[in-house]
Structures are given as structure tokens and as C-alpha cells.
Sequence to fold (364 residues):
Amino acid sequence: KEPGDLCSLMYTSGTTGAPKAVMLSHRSWSSVSDTCVDLLGFEAGISIMHPAPLTHGAGFLLLPTLRHQGTNLLVRSFDPGDTADRIASGEAQGMFLVPSMIRMLLDSLPEGWQPSDNFRWIYYAGSPIDPTTFVEAAKAFGGKLVQSFAQMESPMFLTALDAAVHVRAMDDHDLPLIRSAGKLIEGREIRIVDADGHDAATGDAGEVWAKSPQIMSGYWNRPDESDKTLAGGWLHTGDVGYLDDDGYLYLVDRVKDMIVTGGSNVYAREVEDVLIAVDGVARAAVVGLPHRIWGEEVTAVLVREQGATLGDDEVIAHCRQALAGYKVPKRVVWLDELPTNAYGKVLKRSLRSDLAEQLAANAG
Fold:
């Protein structure tokens, strides 16, 4: 086989919620493996636990573990208490988790718990991490955490927030870098591109475009979408972010209007189509609100039809019949009207910000 030949198809959700098969070459897998080794510091005989599905980020840790004659410890499902025990005993030296799993792991730790001396790291990605969880995890695991940002089209590694930042957060709980997606990894390139296709100035937000040695060959049997996503030789990630003066990337929104809850992708449009079909719902918008365990909570913001009296339970019951469990709204908010621009488009960023502020005020 040649390095550029197709090695695997890794499925991800498309902008309509339908899965797309990402074509990854042998070169892609080799690059991801090499980056794992360099970034995470694999050593001979390392023991890696896999509480997360191998179809997610955990699967990319298999090859570098085998390369180092290590042990891949597979478990049937994520059990926070069992995971904590295996870290404490030294059986698990490293693992991939999504932030919601880190939160549940922290909540399970008994008083006086300590990781084994041979514990190496928790590598995490997949969704935003709550700042409180970030700091608590840094303290519990001695700063031995690494975060990365990427997507299946360029698996796992574009930027990384290394252990040094997590160590700093142990003492500086208001460290701005807690909200960062990290710095560019060697061998990768990033551009922040504005709506006119020009490079944005430092500190200004735009779509994140990327180049990497592990970038996909395209989408299986979707040449038009492949050409659009890889136009000009750059991966158009669909994520909106900005770079600070030190080169740290901050993600602020999603072009694709996607919610990430517990590491799983939920497209707002798919949920909105179900909601608008509910008798009594005049308008619907779906946003992700911060959640300490899931990262983001699928939230339905609804306007009732005149005279309608339906409540939250009826809406949730309808959604459960039409959607996978993780896509069903966890919270329903009723408004007299949705904020819109001059063209009638819902101002989701404003809506999300206002609701998040209300939640924070109520919690306080």
C-alpha cells in the first residue's frame, strides 16, 4: 500500500445530521500516531485504558500503544468509580475522555484519592470544558492533562493545550488560557478567515481553516462536498475562532450551528424541525447552554401559538419519539418572541448569551 491509499472510513455527522464517511489514508493514521507519541509522551510498556468508544478519539490511541509494546485495556462501558480505581492502582496510566466524562470521574473520587505514581495523563477533546471542571481536574490529576482541537476531517490534532497550562491553572483559577483550545501543533497550519475570504487580524474572529499531514482525502462518494470543504487546499472546519497575540486559539461559535453535548454532535436544525411540528409551537430555536457535566445542554427556545397551552412535558415526549436520546432537549424555555435580525433570522448568539446569563444569575 502507498501512504496516500485509503486506509479507513470514519463516520461523522453532516450539516443536516446525516453521517458522512471521512476517507483517511495510511499517511493520516501514521501522522496521528506520531503526534500522539510526541505530544503525550508514550513510553515502552505503557498501559492505556479505553473508557470511551474506540470510534471516538480513544481509537486513535490504539496504534501508538501497540507501537510501544503497551497494553490497551478495553472496558465495556464508562464506570467513573472503576476508572478512578484503575488510575489509583496504576493499572491505567493514560486514557482519552470527553469533558463530561472528566466531570463524572471527578464527582466519583472519594476523599483522599490520589492517582498512582505511574499515572501519565488524561487526554481529552470533543466538546467545550467547563472552567470549574478544568481547574478541579488539574488539581486532582496534578496537571497531567492535555487537550486538543481538531475534527474527524483532520483527526485529533491541530492545536493542543499542554500540561504546563493545566499546572498553571492549579494556582491561577482565572487563567484566561483555560478557555483556549491551545497552540498550533508543529507541522500544522491555521488561518482565521473572515466572511470576505481574507485573513482576519489578530483577535478578530473568523472561520478556522487548517492544513495538516493527517487531513482527509475527502468524503466517500461526496465529491462536491469534498471540494467545498477542501477548497483551495485548506480544510474549512466550520468553526469560528480567533488567535491571540501569543498564538493561542479561542473558539467562539460554530458556522455549522452544532451543539456538542457529552462529546456527541447535535445539529440544531434537526431538532428544530421536530419541534416546529409539535401542535401549539409557533416558532422554535435550539441552542447549546453551558452544562457542568455535558459541556453543552440541548435547549429548546419556543414561542407558543396564540391560545396554545402545551407545556414542557408534551414537547419532550414528542421529541423522544422522533430523536435519539442525546438529541432530545434537556431544557425548554418559553418566550413571547425570538430575537431576529432584519431578515427574520434568529439571532442565536444573542439568544444563547442572554439565556446563559440568566442561568448564571439564577444559580448565584
